[in-house]
Amino acid sequence: MGEELLLSVDVYGWFVLPLLIFLARVVDVSMGTVRIVFVSRGFKFLAPVMGFFEVLIWILAISQIMQNLNNPACYVAYAGGFAMGNFVGMWIAEKLTLGVVLVRIVLKKDATELVENLKNEDYGVTCIEGHGTVGQVKVIFTIVPRREVKRVTELINIFNPQAFYSIEEVNSVEKGVFPIRQAGGLGNIIKHLRPFRKGK
């Protein structure tokens, strides 16, 4: 009976507890990574909620570490969970495709066709004349939801595969013209919390 109890304690202390600590760290670090994304993209209501649960889970994990200071497996699990949590958090952040971005396109040739194609896709477009190293250029600006970046770059590459363009984060947008798309999955939950409003 005593040997079975000792074996049970060993299994819990060296396998079950480290596994729980590892999973807790994966969850709280992942939430921390996503929270930072929410903060940077203006989701001021979601970020505090995410922060609350992130810290709560961290407290539970660190309390188990403090109660088992003589167990090196807990240390390894804590560090491993932190590393894995960063990976999982970045993966989730990439899949969320939240926020809006500015796409800046610089062309050496007439941009009328590209501008019309963007307008036909319901993207707001601003086009100005510019002067570059190689002479006169057209500079096109469009601000789009992050989830639309792939479609915009496809249109750019169809029109001119050699076009120069850059993509930058935009913290917030007031009004403007944005394409109407059906949001799926998590997008349905947070569509009312986007950091921009569509113009009329």
Structure report:
By secondary structure, the chain is α+β, with helices and mostly antiparallel strands. It has two domains: 2-96; 100-193, 2-Layer Sandwich (Alpha-Beta Plaits), CATH 3.30.70. The protein contains six helices and four strands, in the order αααβαββαβα. The chain has helices at residues 2-40, 46-67, 72-96, 112-120, 149-159, 186-190, and strands spanning 100-107, 126-132, 135-145, 164-170. The chain has a four-stranded antiparallel β-sheet, covered by helices on one side. A hairpin with a 2-residue loop joins strand 2 and strand 3. Helix 1 (2-40) packs antiparallel against helix 2 (46-67), helix 1 packs parallel to helix 3 (72-96) and helix 4 (112-120) packs antiparallel against helix 5 (149-159). The longest helix has 39 residues, at 2-40. The chain is elongated. The N and C termini lie far apart (75 Å). Residues 194-200 have low confidence and may be disordered.
